[in-house]
Structures are given as C-alpha cells and as structure tokens.
Amino acid sequence: MKIIVGLGNPGQKYQYNRHNAGFLIIDELANALSAEKLKFEKKFNAAISQTNHQGEKILLLKPQTYMNNSGQAVFSLMNFYKLLPKTFGILNKKNADLSKQLVVIHDDIDFNLGEFKMQKNRSSAGHNGIKSIIDTLKTQNFTRAPVGVRTERKKNIPTDKFVLENFSTTELELLKKITPRIIKEIL
Hints:
This protein is α/β, with parallel strands linked by helices. It has five helices and nine strands. The strands form two sheets. It has a seven-stranded mixed sheet, with helices on both faces. Strands 5-6 form a two-stranded antiparallel sheet. The relative contact order is 0.20.
C-alpha cells in the first residue's frame, strides 16, 4: 500500500493558491490513475480516494486540517492501516523509514514554478505542513515531491502572502504540464 498526500488548505478560497499545489497535483493524479473520475470521501480529517496501480493499493489524501496541522490527517490514516512501526507495541517508533509507504507532494518556494525534485529523509526546510507531518509521525524519513511555485513576483512579496495568492491561468497550465513527470517518479 502507498499513501500519496497532497498538501494544501481546504475550501474554495484557497483552491488555486500556490500553497495548494499539492492538492492540485493530487487531483491530476486521481484523473491519471482512473478511467472513471475518482471520488474523494471525507474521513480521518481528510478527503481520501482509493485506487490500484499495477496491483498496488494507492490511497490519495488531501488533509482538511489546514496546512499547519497536516500531520494529524496523515497520522490518523497511517495509524488506521497499521503502517507506523511501533516501539513496545504502543509508541510510534522514532525515525522509522516510511519512504516506501508515504509520499508527500507540497509547494516549495525554493524551486521555480515548473520544477520539482524527489527527496527522502529531509528536514521541513521551514514548510509548516511538512513540519507538522514530521512532528506527528516522529520521523522525516518519507518521500517528498516539492513542487516549485516561485516566480518573478516573489521578489517583492513576503512568502506567507505570496503562497496564498492564486496561480494565474498560465501558471496553472505550467503546473499541469509537469504533473505527468511527477506521477512517473512517484509510481
């Protein structure tokens, strides 16, 4: 089983924000993995969809806890499916290697729009959604796909305001163009 998480903020207000790059990629991934439109249902403080790819069960997850609390939804789902290694049978094992089970797609201000990079066992680098996941799971050893959102406009705008701006139509098209490459890397 593989859990693929896209980070973002719930609600129409945030739907096309740069901070929602993870949600947007998850939606594209859902379309690519199924001939039918996959439906997302609400549970574990998240919107979840399930499919199979080459015989492997894939869960797509969009936390509905807002970015800074994304770890709550990821933990709930992974705990339910017993994917978190335990110490003494009850406590989450610290620094567990979850890189084969968990992939997190998120916006990254350090990369230009249209760029992404697969990473494993990395710190949050100041990204609050990733920090929440690391703190909640007690490990940073999972796979990440940071997706670049930086543009020339970033130079004059504080980061917190910039990531909450909407993508332009042209920027959304560029994001969609890299989605097949991201999907290929993840699967």
